[in-house]
Amino acid sequence: MGIRSLTRIEAERRSALVTVERYDVDIDLTALPNGPEIRCVSTVTFTCSEPGAETFVDCAAEVRSATLNGTALTPGDDGRIPLPGLAARNVLRVESLQADTTTSPGAHKAVDPADGEVYLWTSFEPDEARFVWACFDQPDLKAPHAFTVTAPAAWTVLSNSGDPRVEEQGAARRWSFPDTPPLSVYNTVVNAGPFHEIRREAGGHDLGVFARRSLAEVLERDADEIFTLTGQGLAFFAEAFAMPFPQRKYDQVFMPEFGGAMENYGCVTWSDMFLRRATPTHAERELLAVVLLHEMAHMWFGNIVTMRWWDDLWLNEAFAEFACHWAAEGATRYTDVWAGHLAGGKLRAYLSDQGPVSHPIHQPIHDVAQAASIFDSITYPKGASVLQQLMTYVGEDRFRTGMAAYFARHAWGTTTLQDLIDALAEAGDRDLATWRKAWLETAGTDRFTLEHDGSTVILVADGTPRPQVLAVGAYDRTGDALERAALVRVEVSEPRTPVTGLPATSDLLLINDDDLTFATTRPDPAGRDTLFRVAARLPTAISRGVAVATVWDMLTAGEATAAEAGRCLTAVLAAETSDAVIEPFLTLVTNIAELWAPDADRPALTEAVAGVCLQLADDPGRRQVALRGLARTATAEGLARLRDQADDDVDLRWRALVREAELGGDVTAESAALLERDPDPDAWVRALTVRAAVPDPAAKAETWQRLAVDRTVPVQSVGAVAAAFWRPGQDALLAPYAERYLAEIPRLDQGGMIPAMVYTSQLFPPYAIDSAYVERAQQAVQEAAPVVRNTLLERSDTVRRMLRARAVNA
User: Fold this and answer.
1) Distance of CA 53 to the CA centre of its chain
2) Helical segments of 184-254, H only
3) Going by C-beta distance under 8 Å and a sequence separation of 6 or more, which residues neighbour residue 363?
4) Residue 730: pLDDT band by 50, 70, 90 thresholds?
5) What distance lies between CA 548 and its chain's CA centroid?
6) Which end of the chain is more exposed for a tag (fewer CB within 10 A), N or C?
7) Of the candidates 130, 141, 135, 187, which has an alpha carbon nearest to the alpha carbon of residue 12?
8) CA-to-CA distance for 189 and 261, rounded, in angstroms?
9) How far is residue 347's CA from residue 351's CA, in Å, rounded to a whole number?
10) Is 473 within 8 Å of 510 (Cβ atoms)?
11) How much is the pLDDT for 520?
């Protein structure tokens, strides 16, 4: 029958019937060093509001035995165990076995190639706990959880509540954790392995960071910064939400073969790729800060107060994404973080919101499978931008007051959208009903331009705009720079809005200056070429970012060429002063050269990017970022210079080898030698990335087998290997793999939500295809799992836009 996805109707019925008193979960990990198995005994104590009724518990692991109030149960073949004849108070006991900890969702066994040590992580969002132990796997059935874990004696076991009682049992130890506060099942966690551990005190909290032993040196390097950011974040959110984090212990665990990061209460799990093997760049450090604060914000948005159902996923993710930037700007050294957000996530969101899978931030969700498909750029960066706009709309002080009231009112419970809107409306003294409908329940992006009506400037919307506040900046040329002569904020609710207070004449008028709202913009027709020409002369990272966002949106909409956009971006890079945006802008312009430019224009644009990299490399603070960019764009002659600059930098040498391999150089011996001396336990992935770039049939076949078929590449490295595999100018070699991608579609959802998203998007071919292929792919995915379908539709729409741009002459 297959594993069924929980529907909203089923969840509402079960929630009305069942109140969970507690979970007692006994987990046995002792088989993992030599095998794949996890054994669990889940005891669920719950009450029933209608004695005699029936329901079901979720368990997609192998059920060894199940009893309800002492009576044996028969599991179904759909990932559920029927629970007939419920009593007023019930005790359910289920013994289960998870025999696949390699590809199954929920729990994963990773073996460190450096020393053979084994590590185990769990990750349960949105409904993957059921693959490990029996539970009511829906967010509104919150309850205390008590975990007892038996593990090899050399291992440390970590869970939500910290401070376990540890008992020696010969070759094993038994870890008994105190009860958690009431949590949704998906917020719980067990991580285990022979960790390297570092602890600090900060603000009354006991902070811990953990990593596999082979990364101990890297963890020690980054520990001070991680602890500093953690202390800053806990203090900021405690004040902003008028509620300190209520648990003394706060752990962060960096795990191998983990995708992204997960906000488990009191015990955040990270991909250990965030522990950069090379010295981190500014953008990489800023990303670490943003992700750290994002997961921390979830302690309040998601853990302490939880969405009732997945249609309010944005209550978790959009708020966490907004709050992490808010906190980073207000409490850490990353004060240009909103500029980084604009240069990265917000640009992706603009593109996604104008594509085939655009959806309202808040929308009806039929079942959890559909919910897995909206962990996307609409929910995250668009949602964060909309909330930034809301704070501007109601005022930051009133926004804080509303947040404090929301948490005081709903702590340890579940909420809906209306609960939050009510709290903010009361605090802000604004009717937010219209705002809610326009921003949260309506898909799409507003677009603004300007008209001059005699002496008046009119802000013109493409249709009826959402209620919002935005700004128009007026700039005049002073020497080689532009200086802001005026900034006028306007509250918009009509298609045409007069903008008063601007100078009679200006060299440039910039719509959405200060980036206060989520909207695309267009210069007036007379100012189009001026914007492209003078964007680099704007005085701040945000103003330059707003100009770049306009140029990018025009490229993706077919209103600007790749050559125009590339010239504008390289000029901005040459003048940029903010480290927060140099790396994302460099990535963006390199992608334009590789993926958007016609074949005839690509060499010149690539050479221009390489030239700005060489210019940036003269600044010692930007040398590393610039040389990484050069490694993507250098010609054979440029690679020689890069080698001289790289010295003993192993990371740069790997990057140079990838480029040299793509250009046809014989790098086999050098790659093998570098692999021998690279201390990174995952260096074999770097060697495979070099192999992936080689324009040779055997190299492509080997890479595809390991990447797409065997899936031996850690999920967090799939993107890098796939990018080296799909290279411009290799169409004849790559064409067969475009067809093989289509054949892989039925199994792209294997392993859970994160692998499904990664494999679907990163393996989609950007080369060796045409628009007819895009249509075939979109048809082929219609019956796939929702997360695969939506990810493919979004990625294929972007590639379709690339194909259109490549067909346009400069």
Assistant:
1) 41
2) 216-240
3) 311, 374, 441
4) very high
5) 22
6) N
7) 141
8) 12
9) 7
10) yes
11) 97
Which residue do the tokens 């001070």 mark? Answer: 224
Alpha helices, H only, 187-281: 216-240
| 664-693 pLDDT, tens digit each | 999 999 999 999 999 999 999 999 999 999
Measure Cα distances from 672 to 587, 664, 737 in Å.
28, 17, 26
Distance (Å, rounded) from C-alpha 700 to C-alpha 704?
Answer: 6
User: Between β-strands 205-211 and 196-202, what pairing exists: parallel, antiparallel or unpaired?
Assistant: antiparallel
Instruction: Tell me the chain's radius of gyration from C-alpha atoms.
Output: 27
Comparing CA positions, the residue from 42, 45, 51 lying closest to residue 17 is 51
| Beta-sheet pairing, 107-111 with 71-72 | unpaired
44-80 per-residue burial string, b: 16 or more CB within 10 A, e: under 16 = bbbebeeeeeebbbbbbbebeebebeeeebebeeebb
Are 667 and 690 in contact by the 8 Å Cβ rule? The answer is yes
Q: What are phi and psi of 197, to 5 degrees?
A: -125, 140
Inter-residue contact 437 to 430 (CB < 8 Å): no
**Selection from 46, 60, 44 nearest residue 6 by Cα:** 60
List, in sequence order, every residue forming a beta bridge with 98; answer none if it has no partner.
Answer: 38
Tokens 């070759």 found at: 171
Sequence letter at residue 365: I
Backbone angles phi, psi at 294, to 5 degrees: -60, -50
Give per-residue pLDDT as tens, 547-602: 999 999 999 999 999 999 999 999 999 999 999 999 999 999 999 999 999 999 99
Q: Convert the pLDDT of each residue in 377-394 to its tens digit.
A: 999 999 999 999 999 989
The CA-atom distances, in angstroms, between 99 and each of 116, 175, 660 are 20, 22, 43
Three-class secondary structure assignment of 549-616? HHHHHHHHCCCCCHHHHHHHHHHHHHHCCCHHHHHHHHHHHHHHHHHHCCCCCHHHHHHHHHHHHHHH
793 with 754: CB under 8 angstroms?
A: no
In the prediction, which pLDDT does 297 show? Answer: 98
Q: Are 513 and 341 in contact (CB under 8 A)?
A: no
The bridge status of strand 306-307 relative to strand 267-271 is unpaired
| AA identity, residue 404 | A
Under 8 Å CB-to-CB from 705, ≥6 apart: which residues? none
Task: Answer whether 0.85 is exceeded by the pTM.
Answer: yes
Q: Stretch 303-317: mean pLDDT, rounded? A: 95
In the Cβ-directed half-sphere of 760, how many Cα atoms lie within 13 Å? 31
Whole-angstrom distance, CA of residue 15 vs CA of residue 140: 7
CA distance 356 to 372: 17
Rounded to 10 deg, the angle between the 417-428 and 396-410 helix axes is: 130
Q: Tokens at residue 649, please?
A: 């930098």
Under the banding of pLDDT at 50, 70 and 90, the label for residue 525 is confident
Quick check: helix, strand or coil at residue 135? strand
Rounded Cα distance between 267 and 302, Å, is 14
DSSP code, position 702: H
- Token pair, residue 487, equals 């900034």
The chain-wide mean pLDDT, for the chain, equals 96
pLDDT in tens, 333-390: 999 999 999 999 999 999 999 999 999 999 999 999 999 999 999 999 999 999 999 9
Query: Which runs of E-coded beta strand occur in 340-455?
Result: 414-415, 446-453
Q: Report yes or no: 330 and 338 within 8 Å, Cβ to Cβ.
A: no
Question: Which tens digit of pLDDT belongs to each residue from 58-101?
Answer: 999 999 999 999 999 999 999 999 999 999 999 999 999 999 99
Q: What is the bridge-based pairing of β-strands 118-122 and 190-193?
A: antiparallel
Determine the Cα–Cα distance for residues 459 and 691; give it in Å rounded to an integer.
53
